[in-house]
Amino acid sequence: MKLFFLFFIFVGSVVQSFAKEQNQAVIFMYHRFGESRYPSTSIKMEQFAFELEYLKKHHYNVLPLSKIVQILRNGQDLPQKTVALTMDDAYKSVYTKAYPLLKKYGFPFTVFVNSEPVDKHYGDFMTWEQMREMAAFGAEFGNHSMTHPSFVSFLSLGSKKMQEMIKKELDGAKKRLKKELGSAYVDIVAYPFGEYTNAIRDHVASLGYVACAQMGGVLTSQTNLAEIPRFPMSERFATKKGFLLKLRTKALPLAEMPQEDHLVRENPPHLVLHLKKHLDNIGCFVASGKRASIKWLDATHVQIEANSLLKPPRDHYTCTALDRDGRWQWYSFFWVFQK
Predict the structure, then answer these.
(1) How far apart are CA 31 and CA 43, in angstroms?
(2) What's the DSSP call for residue 236?
(3) SUPFAM superfamilies, from UniProt (predicted)?
(4) How far apart are CA 156 and CA 134, in angstroms?
(5) CA–CA separation, 107 vs 199, rounded Å?
C-alpha cells in the first residue's frame, strides 16, 4: 500500500512537471521573404518552406499571438508544441511570397505594421487592401508605431515628453490600423528596432498594450507580457539546424525574472539570474557569440558579465544549458544604449 502511494505521488509530480514544461510557446520573428539583397532581415524561401512543412508534419499548434496571450492571461495551459509566426514592418514580400505559403498550410500569423509608409504608398510595403485580404484569411495585425522611431531616442527628452511621444506614435498607428483593418487589429506592440528600457516597457504596458521584443527565448506564464521574446529568423539564423534547435527550446528555469534595467549604465553591465536549481553546465554569451564570464553568488544565483565592452546601439546576454532530454534551456536579456 505504501509503495502504491509513493508511486502515485511520483506519477503526479511527473505529470505536473510535464504540464508546467508544456505551458510555453516559441515565437518566431520575420521581416522580409526571398529578398537576397537584405540577408540580415530576409529569409530564403526554401528555408521558410522547410519550416512550415516541418511544423505541419510534426503537428505543431500554430496559433495567433493574440490567442496565446489570451490563454496565458486567463491562467490556462497552452497546448503542447505551441508556436506563433510574426512579421515586423509589413514589407510587400510578406504578401507576395510568405502569404501564399502560409495560406497553403492554413497557418495564422501576426504582422506588425508601421502605418506611415503604408499611408504614403512606399513601394517596399504592403497596401491596406492586401492586408485586408490576408485578414479575411485569418491574419491579425499589431502596432509597430507610425514612423518606426527608436523609443529609446525619446529618453533624452525627459520622462514626461518620452511618454507623450510614445503614446502619440502608438495611438496614431492604432487609429489607422483599426480604421483600415477593423477587428483584425490587436493591441500588441512590436518595439521598433526591438529597443526599449524598463521605463519604456512599463509605460507601454500602462497604455494597455502587450509588447514584443527581438531577443530569443521562450514565452511562458512567467514572462512579462510587455517584453515577449521572439527568435529572429533570417538567412543566417534559419538553417535547418538553427530552426530545429530554437523550435525545441525550453525556458531556462528561473525562480524569478531579473530586475536589472535594460539601459546600459555601466559597460560592461552585469546581470544576476536567480535559478530554480543549480545548473553546472550553464553557459552565457553576448550577441557576437563570445562567451561571457559567470560567477556563482550562491547555489542558485549566478552573475553574468561580458569580458569586453558591449557595442551600441544594443546587445544581449544569452544563457543556455542543455537539459537531460537533449533540448536547450534558454534565456536572453536585452541591453540598449542611450541614444
Answers:
(1) 8
(2) T
(3) Glycoside hydrolase/deacetylase (SSF88713)
(4) 39
(5) 35
Q: pLDDT tens for residues 109-139?
A: 999 999 999 999 999 999 999 999 999 999 9
Amino acid at residue number 132: R
Number of other CB atoms surrounding residue 323 within 10 Å: 16
Cα separation, 301 vs 321, in Å, equals 15
CA angle at 28 for the pair 22 and 30, rounded to the nearest 5°: 170
CA pair distance 233, 250, nearest whole angstrom: 18
> How far apart (Å, rounded) are the C-alpha atoms in residues 323 and 276?
14
235, 45 in Cβ contact below 8 A?
Answer: no
- What pLDDT does 15 receive? 38
Query: Are residues 46 and 238 in contact, defined by beta-carbon separation less than 8 angstroms?
Result: no
CB 242 within 8 A of CB 208: no
The pairing of beta strand 140-143 with beta strand 110-113 = parallel
Query: What would the pLDDT profile of 27-69 be if each residue is shown by its tens digit?
Result: 999 999 999 999 999 999 999 999 999 999 999 999 999 999 9
Q: How many CB atoms lie within 10 A of CB 21?
A: 16
Distance linking the first and last C-alpha atoms of the chain: 67
The Cα–Cα gap between 276 and 143 comes to 35
- From the list 258, 246, 255, the residue with the least C-alpha distance to 320 is 246
CA–CA distances in Å: residue 65 to residues 1, 6, 85, 187, 261: 47, 40, 8, 11, 26
| CATH architecture of the domain with residue range 255-336 | Sandwich (2.60)
Secondary structure (3-state) at 52: helix
Longest dimension (CA), the chain: 75
CATH-assigned architecture of domain 23-250: Alpha-Beta Barrel (3.20)
d(CA 53, CA 51): 5
- Per-domain boundaries in the chain: 23-250, 255-336
Asked whether the whole model's pTM tops 0.85, one would answer yes
